[in-house]
Write a structure and sequence with these properties.
The complex is a heterodimer of chains A (about 110) and B (about 110). Chain A has about 110 residues and is an all-beta fold. Chain A is built from no helices and twelve strands. Chain B has about 110 residues and is mostly beta strands. Classes of the chains: A mainly beta (about 110), B mainly beta (about 110). Chains A and B meet through strand 6, strand 10 and strand 11 of A and strand 5 and strand 10 of B.
Chain lengths: ~110, ~110
């Protein structure tokens, strides 16, 4: 079945350094929609960015990701982490006409001064 | 726009008791989703409705969990004979269109089964 894999459970880094969160997916369908949701402490998840166009970079709030269908990946990147980026990040998959959004297990990002 | 409203925020039940969780989606949204969130499993899909009709309940534990959407303004998730492993945050989300739709989550109900 469809699945999303996030290899890092926890990422710790110092403010100002770049961050990359890995996301790979598995689906038999050729037109997947990929999403990143962010959840800050004591809040509910909210959409960070999304894409369904192959090899096109999507950006929002300093973060960016590119859907690569050839490698089934949708990694999230930011060039310079801020303290406020500390949160839980979920990668998620849906395909056109498909069932509900499938989430990965999430990556916790902890940014320190 | 008040967002997705979930009640209660916290619920504590004894083992074997019933728990009913409520969700009011954003007005005008056609789809309602239920997810369960735990530290170990992350966000697990339970079930969803579109235009009040049940579309997919593949994530629901069949024996004790049930969900309904009697009208467009609310949905309920009922857990019968609650067990300690049911302890989690139950999140409701709504969305307004298509497969590339954005899900808007409520604040969740934290269920604790003693």
């Amino acid at each position: 079945g469809d699945s999303v894999t996030q290899t890092e459970g926890l990422v710790t880094l110092t403010e100002g350094l770049p961050v990359m969160l890995n996301c790979t997916y598995q689906t038999i369908y050729s037109n997947p929609f990929l999403f990143w949701y962010v959840q800050h402490l004591n809040e509910s998840p909210r959409l960070l960015l999304k894409s369904f166009t192959d090899n096109k970079r999507t950006e929002h709030q300093g973060f960016h990701a590119t859907l690569h269908k050839s490698s089934s990946s949708f990694h999230l990147q930011k060039s310079s982490a801020q303290l406020s980026d500390s949160a839980l990040y979920y990668c998620a998959l849906r395909y056109q006409g498909g069932r509900a959004l499938i989430f990965g297990t999430g990556t916790t990002v902890s940014v320190s001064p | 726009n008040a967002g997705v409203i979930q009640t209660p925020r916290h619920k504590v039940t004894g083992k074997g008791q019933e728990a009913t969780l409520w969700c009011e989606p954003i007005s005008g949204h056609s789809a309602v989703f239920w997810y369960r969130q735990t530290i170990v499993q992350g966000l697990e899909f339970l079930t969803y409705f579109r235009n009040q009709a049940p579309i997919d309940d593949s994530g629901m534990p069949k024996e004790r969990f049930s969900a309904q959407m009697p009208n467009q303004s609310h949905s309920t998730l009922k857990i019968q004979s609650t067990q300690p492993q049911d302890s989690a945050v139950y999140l409701c989300a709504s969305s307004d269109r298509g497969s590339a739709e954005t899900l808007y989550f409520g604040s969740g109900t934290r269920l604790t089964v003693l």
